[in-house]
Write a structure and sequence with these properties.
Number of strands: 8
Strand content: 25-35%
Radius of gyration: 15 Å
Oligomer: single chain
Shape: globular
Length: 134
């Protein structure tokens, strides 16, 4: 099955797993989704992830992070895809958006790879605004 927007598919799978109170979610492997998972892990939005290349197709198994044991309070309150295949959104180094006044995370695709908004400000680069997480 062909997806026109694999990043939106990844975010939808994560949202659905959170609503179903799952511990983990499987996402088809791609380089960009793997980089997004690395940023989520680095910023504390997921507990961990593993790449399973023995499965067909290869998957990224993302372990979701909850604030309580009963799986009622997920760390990820919401995710939103910003730049879509039909409409690309770009931000310069000076105009990187803030999510919830800096409490959320923005992920950008730059010439240095995928970076969070904080990393973009540190390196002084802008790029395509891929998604928001809060």
């Amino acid at each position: 099955m062909s997806h026109t927007d694999p990043i939106a598919d990844m975010l939808t799978r994560i949202k659905n797993a959170i609503m179903a109170e799952k511990e983990d979610v499987a996402v088809p492997l791609s380089k960009i989704k793997l980089e997004i998972a690395k940023i989520f892990k680095r910023e504390g939005y997921i507990a961990d992830f593993k790449v399973d290349k023995t499965a067909f197709p290869p998957i990224i198994d993302i372990e979701l992070k909850y604030r309580s044991k009963n799986h009622k309070n997920n760390v990820i309150a919401g995710v939103e895809r910003i730049s879509k295949p039909g409409r690309r959104i770009y931000a310069g180094a000076e105009g990187i958006p803030k999510v919830l006044g800096g409490l959320g995370l923005v992920v950008l695709s730059t010439n240095k790879g995928l970076l969070s908004g904080k990393e973009c400000e540190k390196h002084g680069v802008g790029g395509e605004v891929l998604l928001y997480v809060w």
